[in-house]
């Protein structure tokens, strides 16, 4: 089990306040890591980090700002001397303020350009900048693990039928923004793995499936029927895979995409 230990290692998790982000942080703490929880809301992030334990750090970070990320790296090095793991988890998924307009606005023909550009900025540029700032430090120390969180929709097109209700009415469309950005992340992983492989920095993708989190019964049923395990994921279902990628258990693994989706993409 020492292969999975992260004792003495420092891990940064972006998007730490998200449903899966919180579970990523908890898993890293359980494996022995010092965790830097990073999210846009500084006060809430500090509160969450304090809940993880005394030796962890919460930082307000804007992943689209290189200056903000450099400040975060400096804060990390002041406290821990090194950064060994980066989990690029921060991302935007579509949410519409007016649910009555969700179907109309999410349709490709009407999807707002500014929403598409915002997703590109956070989901792709944010991962680029985080990797540039923290990954450069890892390359200079000749060790580290970067884990980019993608999605099944980075590999396959969205099945729009799962967003229909029991009467067959479309309630929402999965937009182009999420699959486009997550697909880009998978190939960005390959680029970084090839670029930094000689330095000892490993870069892999973790592609999760959908997490059950208060969706409608129709959606949960539609989604579950497409998985081989017959259910949506629990938020904790990705913790084992994350620790595997972060630790020496995956020491000979880089440039790979670890798919954990209940069998969604298997057929």
Automatic annotation (TrEMBL):
The keyword Coiled coil does not apply. InterPro entries: NAD(P)-bd_dom_sf, Sc_DH/Rdtase_CS, SDR_fam. This is SDR family oxidoreductase. Signal peptide: none annotated. Gene3D superfamilies: NAD(P)-binding Rossmann-like Domain (3.40.50.720). The lineage of its organism: Bacteria, Pseudomonadati, Bacteroidota, Sphingobacteriia, Sphingobacteriales. GO terms for molecular function: oxidoreductase activity, acting on the CH-OH group of donors, NAD or NADP as acceptor. The keyword Oxidoreductase applies. PANTHER family: 3-OXOACYL-[ACYL-CARRIER-PROTEIN] REDUCTASE (PTHR42760:SF133), SHORT-CHAIN DEHYDROGENASES/REDUCTASES FAMILY MEMBER (PTHR42760). Belongs to the short-chain dehydrogenases/reductases (SDR) family. Keywords: Oxidoreductase. It comes from Mucilaginibacter rubeus. Pfam families: adh_short_C2 (PF13561).
């Amino acid at each position: 089990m020492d292969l999975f230990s992260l004792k003495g290692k420092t891990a940064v998790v972006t998007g730490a306040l998200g449903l899966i982000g919180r579970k990523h942080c908890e898993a890293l703490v359980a494996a022995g890591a010092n965790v830097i929880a990073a999210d846009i809301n500084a006060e809430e992030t500090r509160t969450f980090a304090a809940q993880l334990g005394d030796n962890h750090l919460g930082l307000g970070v804007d992943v689209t700002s290189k200056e903000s990320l450099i400040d975060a790296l400096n804060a990390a090095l002041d406290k821990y001397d090194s950064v060994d793991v980066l989990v690029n988890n921060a991302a935007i998924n579509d949410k519409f303020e007016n649910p009555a307009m969700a179907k109309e606005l999410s349709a490709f023909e009407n999807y707002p350009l500014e929403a598409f550009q915002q997703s590109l900025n956070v989901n792709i540029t944010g991962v680029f900048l985080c990797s540039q700032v923290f990954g450069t430090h890892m390359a200079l120390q000749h060790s580290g693990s970067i884990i980019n969180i993608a999605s099944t929709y980075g590999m396959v097109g969205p099945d729009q039928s799962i967003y229909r209700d029991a009467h067959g009415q479309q309630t929402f469309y999965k937009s182009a923004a999420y699959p486009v950005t997550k697909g880009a992340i998978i190939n960005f992983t390959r680029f970084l793995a090839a670029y930094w492989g000689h330095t000892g920095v490993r870069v892999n993708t973790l592609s999760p499936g959908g997490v059950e989190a208060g969706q409608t019964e129709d959606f949960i049923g539609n989604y579950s029927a497409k998985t081989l395990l017959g259910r949506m994921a629990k938020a904790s279902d990705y913790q084992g895979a994350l620790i595997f990628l972060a630790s020496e258990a995956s020491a000979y693994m880089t440039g790979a995409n670890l798919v954990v989706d209940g069998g969604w993409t298997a057929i």
